[in-house]
User: Fold these one by one.
Assistant:
Number 1:
Amino acid sequence: DAGVIQSPRHEVTEMGQEVTLRCKPISGHDYLFWYRQTMMRGLELLIYFNNNVPIDDSGMPEDRFSAKMPNASFSTLKIQPSEPRDSAVYFCASSFNYGTANSPLHFGNGTRLTVT
Amino acid sequence: AQSVTQLDSHVSVSEGTPVLLRCNYSSSYSPSLFWYVQHPNKGLQLLLKYTSAATLVKGINGFEAEFKKSETSFHLTKPSAHMSDAAEYFCVSGNTPLVFGKGTRLSVIA
């Protein structure tokens, strides 16, 4: 089991540029989550999917953020245009049968985004 | 709404001494609770989980936590700290959606 795989590990971009973060969940997991972590706000849930369908995107900060899950093994989080306040570590996590007591999240190592 | 409160943002202990990281939960019913650990530049890793089967839960790396309904607490403990325990620890309420505490940074002094 390779775990949740995120790419890139680090991304540095200029304000106004488009940024795409990628995630490959653990095979067989039916839930996928995108989180953002900052010193000020801690861990924030942005959006999550069940069987590739977005279930709750109320945490997405604004229209500049979008997420897709075209199939069970791949998801993207896109920011267009990026702004300095988007600088954070973005985590992807997956789970099987989320919502039950035996369904912890498995996290990737994150993408550290810096927008200058 | 559910919430978890981690009472200390930073805890510092000497190597070989006990660790206590405090967490209180707010729930109208018995929740599922987790502790996660995050080492620098890494994702979060599950330490242990409470699922109502037993009030004392043992996790990885010698950590354990006790669910106390009367105190609405789920404190994380370890008898003897190791340098490798230095990390950020999150108490999490396991319902939809997951509710994360603000985290407690554990420092271990040699």
Note: Chain B is about 0% helix and 55% strand.
Number 2:
Amino acid sequence: EAQVTQNPRYLITVTGKKLTVTCSQNMNHEYMSWYRQDPGLGLRQIYYSMNVEVTDKGDVPEGYKVSRKEKRNFPLILESPSPNQTSLYFCASRAVDSSGNTIYFGEGSWLTVV
Amino acid sequence: QQQVKQSPQSLIVQKGGISIINCAYENTAFDYFPWYQQFPGKGPALLIAIRPDVSEKKEGRFTISFNKSAKQFSLHIMDSQPGDSATYFCAASIGGGSGYSTLTFGKGTMLLVSP
């Protein structure tokens, strides 16, 4: 079954405590990305990756880091979380060939920073 | 600057009615317009998509209408059902949605279909 798996699904953390949200896909997709979803603001892209070792900033990259050391994994790193990073986060992936215009989303990670 | 404007922000429709969600875009280079459906507690999932060489695409009760000259497209849900209650996102991208293009999403519409 095609899947994008994120962990943790729910997390409450404190300001400044580094955390990583993992993302893994089993579809051999080249393209992976992270979004955050906030009420009234919709889905905003944080970072994306075209392939291994290739990453680029999206619309709201401040306060986040990513890495793409393997094709299947794309972790999102919050080095020093702040309350304004409280949000619902989605990892997504798709292929880059002509069949790849469907984005597959994970089920989301609820993050609360207190 | 928001490139894809979606309205309304929320919508309540009676069961059996027609739900209509509208989107407008600015970038004439966009050539792929998908709609994503998101149920509570789930990630968005592709619902239906259209390219600008056609003015309408229908899949079951869901229809996309596309007006290239007005740079607008809309989602129509016929015979709306309580199970259609979800958040709907329109989006747009360049390059047919594949390759290395990035999707630009609208802000979403929360649809509630009352029984």
Note: Chain B has a mean pLDDT of 93.
